[in-house]
């Protein structure tokens, strides 16, 4: 703390900026840990329930049990579009429940794609900040170090002495900025890579679920 107090104004501003990056990054890390953990757990339970259930309306009535799963959003969108198509067919007294032309199953596929895109955006929210922190914090810290070393050498020139006792304190103070930059960057990079991997797994699950949902619709509803 004594070394921090003796640093110059520019280095202090750099350290405050890095502290902001670090605090926000840790907040995002804890938030995403909770979000991704809930999404994974809820998705596993939802898939188990989905394959055990016999009717879409029964599944739809139990979605509140899996509110943190992105798969429930896909199901809601797909099932909602299916209901709209059924209502249109009933109004026209058509013997087919769902047709396979552009006004039928393709509408459900588009609804599932929209829901998938929306959920990916939600899951990836704030990850850009982690990536930015991991990429820029070391350079911000390096800037503070370079500035601090420049100031230290300026003081050495003014004092006219280049002894270790004069040089070492200024260099040590300047290197604090680089150390804090690494402290801010390393957790951010690790968190970003970890969440990207977990989100890719969830995206794969969403793609698989969309495919299975469409297959069920085509097998059991189309052309009946």
Question: What's the short version?
Answer:
This protein has helices at residues 2-6, 9-52, 56-60, 70-92, 105-123, 127-159, 164-220. By secondary structure, the protein is mostly helical.
Structure description:
- It contains 7 helices and no strands.
- It is mostly helical.
- It has one domain (2-220).
- Helix 4 runs parallel beside helix 7 (164-220), helix 5 (105-123) packs antiparallel against helix 7 (164-220) and helix 6 (127-159) runs antiparallel to helix 7.
- The mean pLDDT is 84.
Shape: rod-shaped
Give the oligomeric state of the chains in this entry, treating copies of one chain as homo and distinct chains as hetero: single chain
Secondary structure category: mainly alpha
Number of domains: 1
| Share of helical residues | over 70%
- Any low-confidence stretches, pLDDT <50, length ≥5? none
Sheet-strand content, in percent, reads under 5%
**Radius of gyration, taken over Cα atoms and rounded to an integer in Å:** 28 Å
**Distance from first to last alpha carbon:** 76 Å
Number of helices, counting only DSSP H or I runs of 4 residues or more: 7
The residue-averaged pLDDT reads 84
Number of strand elements = 0
What can be said about the biggest beta sheet? Answer: none
Task: Output the helix-strand order.
Answer: HHHHHHH
Topology:
Elements: H1 2-6, H2 9-52, H3 56-60, H4 70-92, H5 105-123, H6 127-159, H7 164-220
Helix pairs in contact: 2-6, 2-7, 4-5, 4-7, 5-7, 6-7
InterPro entries: ExbB/TolQ_transport, MotA_ExbB_proton_chnl, Tol-Pal_TolQ
GO cellular component, one term: plasma membrane
Protein name: Protein TolQ
């Amino acid at each position: 703390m004594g070394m921090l107090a003796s640093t110059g104004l520019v280095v202090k501003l750099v350290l405050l900026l890095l502290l902001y990056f670090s605090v926000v990054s840790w907040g995002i890390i804890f938030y995403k840990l909770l979000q991704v953990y809930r999404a994974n757990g809820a998705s596993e339970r939802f898939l188990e329930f989905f394959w055990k259930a016999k009717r879409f309306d029964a599944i739809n009535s139990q979605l509140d049990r899996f509110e943190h799963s992105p798969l429930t959003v896909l199901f809601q969108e797909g099932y909602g579009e299916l209901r709209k198509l059924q209502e249109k067919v009933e109004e026209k007294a058509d013997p087919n429940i769902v047709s396979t032309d552009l006004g039928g199953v393709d509408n459900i596929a588009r609804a599932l794609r929209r829901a998938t895109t929306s959920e990916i955006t939600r899951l990836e929210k704030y990850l850009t900040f982690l990536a930015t922190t991991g990429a820029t914090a070391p350079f911000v810290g390096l800037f503070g170090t370079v500035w601090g070393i420049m100031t230290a050498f300026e003081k050495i020139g003014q004092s006219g002495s280049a002894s270790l006792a004069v040089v070492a304190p200024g260099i040590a103070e300047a290197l604090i900025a680089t150390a804090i930059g690494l402290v801010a960057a390393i957790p951010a990079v690790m968190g970003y890579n970890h969440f990207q991997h977990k989100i890719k797994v969830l995206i794969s699950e969403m793609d698989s679920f969309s495919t299975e949902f469409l297959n069920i619709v085509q097998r059991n509803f189309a052309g009946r």
